[in-house]
Design goal:
- By secondary structure, this protein is of the alpha+beta class.
- Helices cover 33% and strands 23% of the residues.
- The protein has helices spanning 7-15, 49-59, 84-96, 181-199, 211-226, 235-251, 257-271, 276-288, 292-302, 311-322, 326-339, 344-352, 445-453, 455-459, 514-526; strands spanning 68-69, 79-80, 102-105, 115-118, 127-135, 138-144, 150-154, 160-161, 164-165, 169-174, 369-371, 374-375, 377-380, 384-389, 394-399, 403-410, 414-420, 424-425, 431-432, 435-441, 464-468, 476-484, 487-498, 501-510, 529-530.
- A hairpin with a 3-residue loop joins β16 and β17 (414-420).
- The longest helix is centred in the middle third of the chain and has 19 residues, at 181-199.
């Protein structure tokens, strides 16, 4: 698998690297809520103003820059908003960032919806509130009620000295809302970063019976990343976030996800070699594939990228320790743990690599088989994934946002491939997915014609059927509509017989999502190529085992890091 980053680029990156980039250890938290400890029920004994205030900010459309959660497992056992003290730090950083989510507000310029936070002189965790308006020329703020819920208060002396904001309090205003593409990107970056701490490698830190929830969350993040195509200004972020989501899917061993992640991330790095987050996800995918040599090369290069996240030291440590370079790996692991002492993956690696032990990378799953001695081949481009079944003479492509959920092959039943489509937003605002099934069989000659003729009725015996114009010459296409599982389902069945092989392609959706999926499904059906077919793919859609990225021009060397 080729990395989309040239040797010249790597040399330029390494030229700016320093021999050691030890991160400063974090200061001990002054507020218990900033430590990785479970949240007591109802915040009993804890500062609740952050909870009430952040909920109010979200009602105004604001985005929480970061969250606190149990980082030892996914789904997390506990989750909470940052404390007022940490909130003050986060909001100040956002205000200094030209593209930050929040902006600082002058003391005489308060408005309804502004956030007021006081980090000193207001208890161990500080206090925060949201301006609800004015009453008799006094500022009214949202407060935590004595029990649960919220209340309001006029001229709260914690934040105001009469009608004026106290010197210890600072005010901020929402600059970017969550319905803005930038706000959406920031939410995706936040959630991906948290999941990368628990499920970015084998074995993922997934709780018992939690795999379904984690799979659904990753698919949601993949959908939302891919949906940024609606905003041309965020093309690069769309590719990057999609690649990061697919890297997590690869760690969960979704079929085809590793090939998709590699194709998308190589495309990002081919366009922007100094994207640190893309490089780190690509290293993670290389580690999943067991390629420690390339992982070390790319991780070492990434350490020289300005403002690269500390996670680069963990990934480099993981690759070095797996390659038997225990001393170098231990040094990188120490650097990472100084910056992030609570990372559960690092704790696990440190325990396994104690006394200089080599910790091999868990093996990837065996390639899927489509019959005895025959392997189903999976590949991807930056836009689509594909499978090729030599045994059944079948090739198919599907959109990156679809998930290949299962496949099975037996001489008796044939080849069965299941997909979950990308998420569809219905007209009522609810979101749902549809399923797509591909079934390939080798019936005897007498049964083949009957299978094609009765495909829709055999699969949906109680449905209303309607014959449609075929999408593939020589095929039969039927639309069905039926009531099942408390909802009205609508979809299509395309059936094709060729050279003794019968292929079924089925879309099963609800009546609300079918109109939004039928064009995408039609493209999927038209991608079908069977052995012996005269159909050929266009160059624009032909899958490649590993897309060849053009070698990028060497960027100038990054500036040296500032002195410590």
């Amino acid at each position: 698998m080729r990395l989309a980053i040239s040797a010249v680029t790597l040399a330029a990156l390494l030229a700016g690297a320093v021999a050691s980039r030890a991160e400063a250890a974090p200061a001990p938290a002054t507020c218990l809520q900033d430590d990785p400890v479970p949240t007591p029920a109802g915040y009993a004994g804890w500062e609740r103003s952050a909870l009430v205030s952040w909920e109010e900010v979200e009602r105004h459309g604001g985005v929480v820059p970061d969250i606190e959660e149990d980082r030892t497992q996914a789904p997390p056992a506990w989750w909470r908003y940052p404390s007022p003290i940490r909130t003050a730090t986060l909001l100040a950083a956002e205000a200094k960032n030209p593209k930050g989510l929040y902006e600082a507000v002058g003391r005489a310029d308060l408005q309804t919806g502004d956030i007021v936070v006081r980090a000193t002189g207001a208890g161990a965790c500080g206090k925060m509130t949201v301006v609800a308006g004015t009453l008799h020329d006094e500022w009214v703020t949202v407060e935590a009620a004595p029990a649960e819920g919220q209340a309001t208060r006029s001229s709260d002396p914690i934040f105001f000295d009469g009608k004026s904001l106290r010197a210890e309090a600072f005010a901020y205003r929402i600059r970017v809302k969550k319905d803005n593409s930038l706000g959406h990107v920031r939410e995706l970056e936040r959630d991906l970063t948290h999941l990368e701490r628990t499920i970015s490698e084998r074995p993922p830190l997934v709780v018992k019976r939690g795999a379904g929830a984690v799979d659904e969350k990753v698919h949601d993040l993949l959908d939302e990343s891919w949906s940024l195509a609606a905003d041309p200004a965020f093309v690069e972020e769309r590719r990057l976030l999609t690649g990061r989501a697919l890297a997590l899917a690869a760690a969960l061993d979704w079929p085809a996800a590793a090939e998709e992640a590699a194709a998308v991330l190589d495309d990002v790095l081919g366009r922007t070699p100094l994207r640190a987050d893309a490089a780190l996800s690509r290293v993670a995918v290389l580690l999943l594939a067991g390629d420690t040599a390339k992982a070390i090369t790319l991780a070492e290069a990434a350490t020289a990228i300005p403002e690269v996240p500390p996670r680069v030291h963990y990934l480099l440590a993981r690759a070095l320790i797996a390659a038997g370079k225990a001393a170098d790996g231990a040094a990188e692991l120490r650097r990472f743990r100084q910056a992030d002492p609570f990372d559960a993956l690092a704790v696990r690696l440190a325990a396994k690599s104690s006394a200089g032990a080599t910790v091999p990378l868990p093996a990837a799953p065996a390639p899927p088989a489509d019959g005895p001695g025959s392997t189903l081949r999976l590949s991807a481009t930056p836009e689509r994934a594909a499978l090729d079944s030599p045994r059944y003479g079948l090739e198919l492509q599907w959109p990156i946002a679809w998930r290949l959920t299962a496949f099975a092959a037996t001489p008796e039943s044939g080849l069965l491939v299941d997909f979950a489509t990308g998420r569809v937003l219905r007209d009522d605002g609810e979101a749902e997915r549809a399923t797509v099934v591909v079934l390939v069989q080798h019936p005897d000659a007498a049964a083949a014609a009957a299978l094609v003729r009765k495909a829709g009725r055999n699969m949906f015996p109680d449905a209303k059927l309607k014959t449609l114009s075929p999408l593939i010459p020589g095929s039969r296409r039927e639309q069905f509509r039926e009531r099942a599982e408390g909802a009205t389902h609508q979809g299509e069945v395309t059936t094709l017989e060729r050279n003794g092989t019968v292929t079924f392609l089925i879309l099963n959706a609800t009546t609300a999502s079918y109109p939004k999926l039928k064009d995408e499904y039609a493209t999927f059906v038209k991608s079908l190529v069977l052995a012996g077919s005269t159909a050929t793919r266009s160059k624009a859609t032909a899958p490649a085992a590993a897309p060849k990225a053009t070698t990028p021009a060497a960027p100038p060397p990054p500036p040296p890091p500032p002195p410590h």
